[in-house]
Amino acid sequence: MEFCPKGLIKYANQANSGGNIPAAFVDVENKCTGCAICAISCPEIAIKEVLR
Ligand code: SF4
Predict the structure, then answer these.
(1) What is the largest CA-CA distance in the chain?
(2) 10, 14, 42, 47: least CB-packed within 10 angstroms?
(3) How far apart are CA 30 and CA 40, in angstroms?
(4) pTM for the complete prediction?
């Protein structure tokens, strides 16, 4: 959420099975540039960029 230049990483609407509110990728206007800053900056390596 902190590093996406397009502001596309937001809190999810629901808690996960562990009771935590995870981050979610929300891109209804197709603004993602594929820069991969989100993946590079994720401390848990939970995000992978997929080439389209
Ligand atoms: S690839 Fe870049 S623009 Fe797309 S969600 Fe990640 S940080 Fe944001």
Answers:
(1) 32
(2) 14
(3) 20
(4) 0.81
